[in-house]
Amino acid sequence: MNSAFDAPLSDEQKTLLRTIYIPFSENGKWPIWQYVERILAKKGIDANTVYSSFPVVYGNPGHSWQHSYGITFRDDNNHQPRPDSKTCLTVAGISILGIDLSLCNLFLNLIQLLVNRYQNIEPTPYEVVNEVVTRDEILQAIINPIINAMLEEHSILRSKQLYSILEHEPILSSMVRSLNSNGDEWEIPVSSEIIRFKDIVTVDDYIDLIVDWLKPSNAPAVAMSIGRLDLPYAIGYLDAVWRCWCDKNLFARPDISSSARLTQPCENVEEFNSFMSALADILGQVLTPDKEEPEQKGALESLQNYLEDNFKENREILTRLIDQLTILIDLRHLRVSLQHSDARHKAPESSRRLGIDYPPSNWNELWKQVVTLAQGAFDAIREEINSDYKLEIRRIT
């Protein structure tokens, strides 16, 4: 097992992992957080404390899907959990728990099947060859041979379980495609991404590959060249596109003085804290179209919930939107950890997730990193909303 995950599990950690896994083992669906939390509460265990105790490997925010990997996964990006957040084990978690190693072997066999299929594609000089592996092919090739043909229900369960695992594994999640809402029918378009797994033989090999993939590059994480008006412009441009998309402003009552502070150079820690507060003030004014006032706490999380409800049929756009919201939420967490003594120990973790330097050698350079990340997130959200708006216009016309 990769050194990041080789520490022995405590009894409470094992209890939480089993609580997550048992419903999944019975019907191929991961339980919601409220179920996990209340089952552990009956046993006198604080689920939030135990959940946050698991090791996590953080990577570069530039990765296209998620920039962390651990033993568990929650579809609210591990921020303040919602009661209905789907709570899962990763391949690493299932392997460490050791309760169903045959499922891990099926996962490895599936990877090998995809690699072989990709390597055997016959290219043509003038047309793109699209290869797709269907769920039925997976059943026939890797599941049925090791399950008695009489146990068809168990084969279908294994198929659901494989899909539920693939949904939240880095790299692979962007390849799997659901054909209905319950995971009964799915397929995997075979892309060149799969070739990176060609030498994977064991679960440890797989985890090592994911951890290496997540490692930040040696190049600077973010560009250092910014204009003083770049961030306010990005906020205003996003608000305008959002208004076209849903006929309401994204920011309820943005404070002019807060926007003005975002244009200033930063010379010391006091100014940095002031500018981070200004950014937090603006983020706190985010308003979903179904509300008249922004949430007192968790405005960005409320926006995430809204987007998840409205983009559930367009997973690619939703994934990119959530990636950018995660960056903005982490920036808000960085501000809290720097300005509140009881949360100061979280500053290194927040900065590591964002790929920025902490403690800084220069506060102005740190502020430039924050501005670049925030501007990039606002711009990316605007582009995704604008693309959906254009799609909707095309549908209407």
Which tags fit this structure?
397 residues, 53% helix, 15 helices, mainly alpha, two-stranded antiparallel ribbon
Describe this structure in words.
The protein is mostly helical. It has helices at residues 11-27, 33-42, 47-51, 91-97, 101-119, 135-143, 152-166, 203-214, 230-246, 256-261, 269-283, 299-310, 315-339, 347-354, 363-396; strands spanning 56-58, 68-70, 72-74, 87-89, 132-134, 177-178, 186-189. α13 packs antiparallel against α14. 31% of the residues are buried.
Give the total of beta strands: 7
- Count up the helices: 15
Helix/strand/pairing class, anyone? mainly alpha
> How are helices and strands ordered from N to C?
HHHEEEEHHEHHEEHHHHHHHH
Q: Work out the radius of gyration.
A: 23 Å
Major β-sheet annotation: 3 strands, antiparallel
**Apparent shape:** globular
Low-pLDDT regions:
218-225, 393-397
Oligomer: single chain
Largest beta sheet: strand ordering? 5-7-6
Distance between the termini: 55 Å
- How much of the sequence lies in strands comes to 5-15%
